[in-house]
Amino acid sequence: MTNTKFKDRVLSVRPEPLQAADMTTLQVNLGYQCNLACKHCHVSAGPGRTESMDEQTAATMLRVFAENPFETLDLTGGAPELNPHFRWIVAEARKAGRRVIVRTNLAVFFEQGMEDLPEFFRDHGVELIASLPYYLEDSVDRVRGGGTFKKIIAALRQLNNLGFGNGASGRSLGLVYNPQGAFLSPDQATLEAQYKHELKERFDVSFSRLYAFTNMPIGRFRDFLQRTGNLEKYMQKLACAFNPQTLDNIMCRSLLNVGWNGALYDCDFNQVLGLPVSPEASRHIRDFDFDALSKRRIATDDHCYGCTAGQGSS
Amino acid sequence: MTEYYKAEDLGRFGEVGKHNTALFKKFLDWYNASLEPGALTKREKVLIGVAVAHVVQCPYCIDAYTNSCLEEGMSLEHITEAVHVASAIRGGASLIHTIQAHNAVDRTSL
């Protein structure tokens, strides 16, 4: 497949393997249940998944967050909002006044009992990062399921009405672009301008900033690559686009990922692949050791080419 | 057509230089330089590329430039509009020759 292993490629441009730098973000995957089943999902999340963080694990995670110098709690899933302890987790984390980011699919606002989520996010000063693979209905519904795009636009309008994405202080609303297939992302700044123009012109909605991500060759997206005979070509494409400049700010160096069951990982992708963090004595949130984890060597494999391709994907 | 146009043959493009390396190098330098952003952005250039690819009906170029368009954040909406422009010009170029036919008729008719 790729001729050079990722770890060797790193060693060809740096004196030592990747290591954690400033551990400022605690990223927590609250579970794999989701109202959608997107074709590009690295978690293979969906309505049929039952993995979900329980109250005891969430309490331990919140204690670790409060007692250590993390700046940001980054909640992801699945749809993190579907975890039964979600609102309590957000409220507790915000009590310390620290930054809380929720990665939302927006369509979840239209699930039963979730209708007041926009007001909840406003009242608790939550920053939102929302997945929107493209600004056209056909392209989005093809990846995320029929009818999803219309829900997303309606959700964006609700959020705009509450001040999210309109430049209001503390109401940040980021959008995430994902390629709708086996190709790389465009330049982020150019695409952001395009998104802002098109979403305003076509739907009268606005947002704060765009993140152009690369699809990771794992989970449901890897199944697609294999099924369509694109896996080898895609891996070559990622490896050919390796950009050493992305290594300084690659997200695994500044975050620690917590799985739904409390297991610790370098990132959400390693979680899906079952690649644990290196310090064996601290591989679960109940055994959290800030000093050991903040100096840890990052566990890598060839999927990491996805975070170093082109402009990077962190 | 399949046996003539194999997708994997695009990866063998370099073999074209086998019997005249110097000329092929000149072509590649010219080709690569032409796609560098200048007064036109890369996005505009690949859109021209996909339109021309359809007019010259090159399956390799269509594959390559369609992917380039996707990687520049464009969709089938953009590609289709570009191909319509190129195809309309091609159609117009044929139609304008009707005047040649008119002229020929005029020259030879009573």
Describe it for me?
The complex is a heterodimer of chains A (314) and B (110). Chain A has 314 residues and is α/β, with parallel strands linked by helices. Chain A has helices at 6-11, 55-67, 86-95, 117-123, 137-144, 148-161, 188-203, 219-227, 231-240, 268-273, 290-294, 305-308, and strands at 25-29, 72-76, 99-104, 127-131, 173-177, 209-212, 255-258, 264-265. Chain A has one domain: Aldolase class I (TIM Barrel), CATH 3.20.20. Chain A has 12 helices and 8 strands. In chain A, β3 (99-104), α4 and β4 form a beta-alpha-beta unit. The mean pLDDT of chain A is 95. Chain B has a domain at 42-108: AhpD-like (Up-down Bundle), CATH 1.20.1290.10. In chain B, α2 (42-55) runs antiparallel to α3 and α2 (42-55) packs across α4 (76-96). At the A-B interface, α7 of A face α3 of B.
CATH architecture of chain A: Alpha-Beta Barrel
CATH superfamily of the domain at 42-108 in chain B: AhpD-like
Order of helices and strands of chain B: HHHHH
Helix percentage range of chain A: 25-40%
Question: So what's the overall shape of chain B?
Answer: extended
Oligomer: heterodimer
How far apart the termini of chain A lie comes to 24 Å
- Counted by DSSP, the helix tally of chain A is 12
CATH superfamily of chain A: Aldolase class I
Radius of gyration of chain A: 19 Å
Main beta sheet of chain A: 8 strands, mixed
Low-confidence stretches of chain B: none
The biggest beta sheet of chain B, please?
Answer: none
The largest inter-chain interface, given as chain pair and residues per side, is:
A-B, 15 and 9 residues
* Poorly predicted tracts of residues of chain A: none
Strands in their spatial order, largest beta sheet of chain A: 6-5-4-3-2-1-7-8
Number of strand segments of chain A: 8
Average per-residue pLDDT of chain B, rounded, comes to 94
Specify Rg of chain B, calculated over alpha carbons: 19 Å
